[in-house]
Design goal:
Shape: globular
CATH class of one domain: Alpha Beta
Order of helices and strands: EEEHEEHEHHHEHEHEEHHHEE
Distance between the termini: 57 Å
Radius of gyration: 21 Å
Oligomer: single chain
CATH architecture of one domain: 3-Layer(aba) Sandwich
Strand content: 15-25%
Structural class: alpha/beta
CATH topology of one domain: Rossmann fold
Number of helices: 10
CATH superfamily of one domain: P-loop containing nucleotide triphosphate hydrolases
Helix content: 25-40%
């Protein structure tokens, strides 16, 4: 494991089998994460983003692969292969914020009990008074009024509920947070508040984020690096500004063409994708994207492209990446200031 990394995902696979049908939800995904970074994972619904996140935190058991993790004590281990006893000791260092703030909170528990529940599970000898105080301190830190903690989740708005979920994830002082579509169910103005909160907490608590989302404009704002997934595979991975300005995969180009620009005078040419995402139980031969790609060749239909580092820290899986000149997100679409 590289000494600069806190997390290394190596050739991760996840397959679901039911009634003789095998669904390849995640196929051969690899990437590295440095401490304090935010890695955005984007793609259409059904591309395997959530499954990848849940495999990393071991909510699902991966079928193959390795997730090397550096603990707070400096120990390096494969998170997927540790035994139950060791798992419990390091579980508090990797936590998850779920997508739906309405279904991820128990409606029969008070907010105080929800936030302090991880403390009960990990520190059973801690006094009730100390647990209550920690929960109140964490609620204050995420912007909740501690005098409301004896209320139940139904008394809170969507944005407030997501703050409760964030407080619950942070109460154990983790190193890594996996945010699974953490703002997609929220109103746009509330999204901005929660994203700013996550950014502030990252600086204050030295957190590392894996931010899963289908919204590329949100990912651009919060991420240091971005991975683009398609049908369970990583299509492209690079630093955020590099990927948005100079995409190397046709799928990334199409996704970026759909990012809205906050300027009504700018006309963006959309790149529509024909057809639907193929069935992961019966993926196509060659490049998984070839049936929807406007640059497709016969080689794309038969040979699987390798995921290679084509430029420094810019990885892509495309046979034609070297020869194509793809259009990135228009950073220069803001109107120029006029001379008075």
């Amino acid at each position: 494991m590289n000494s600069e990394n806190i997390l290394e995902v190596k050739h991760l696979h996840k397959r679901f089998a039911s009634k003789g049908v095998v669904v390849k939800a995640v196929t051969d995904v690899s990437f590295d994460v440095k401490p304090g970074e935010t890695i955005g994972i984007v793609g259409e619904s059904g591309c395997g983003k959530t499954t990848l996140g849940r495999c990393i935190v071991r909510a699902y058991d991966a079928s193959e692969g390795e997730v090397f993790y550096r603990t707070r004590d400096g120990e390096e281990l494969d998170f997927l292969k540790v035994d139950r006893k060791k798992m419990k000791s390091i579980r508090k260092e990797i936590q998850m914020v779920f997508q739906d703030p309405y279904s991820s909170l128990d409606p029969r528990m008070t907010v105080l009990d929800i936030i302090k529940e991880p403390l009960k599970a990990n520190y059973p000898k801690m006094s009730k008074a100390e647990m209550d105080q920690r929960a109140k301190d964490m609620a204050t830190k995420v912007g909740l009024n501690p005098t409301y903690l004896m209320r139940y989740p139904h008394a809170f708005s969507g944005g407030q509920r997501q703050r409760i979920g964030i407080a619950r994830a942070l109460i154990l002082n983790p190193q890594i947070i996996v945010c699974d579509e953490a703002v997609s169910a929220l109103d746009v103005s509330i999204q901005a508040q929660v994203i700013n909160l996550l950014h502030d907490l990252q600086k204050e608590m030295k957190l590392t984020y894996l931010f899963i989302s289908h919204d590329l404009s949100v990912v651009e704002h919060i991420s240091d690096k971005v991975g683009v997934m398609y049908l369970g595979k990583m299509a492209e991975f690079a630093e955020t500004e590099e990927l948005y300005a100079h995409p190397l995969h046709p799928y990334t180009e199409a996704l970026l063409s759909a990012v809205p620009v906050a300027d009504p005078t700018v006309q963006i040419e959309r790149i529509p994708l024909q057809g639907e995402i193929p069935n992961p139980a019966n993926p196509p031969s060659g490049c998984y994207f070839h049936g929807r790609c406007r640059y497709c060749t016969e080689k794309c239909k038969t040979e699987t492209p390798e995921f290679v580092e084509l430029k420094p820290n810019h990885f892509v899986a495309c046979h034609r990446a070297k020869e194509l000149s793809l259009r990135g997100f228009a950073y220069d679409t803001k109107p120029e200031a006029k001379d008075e």
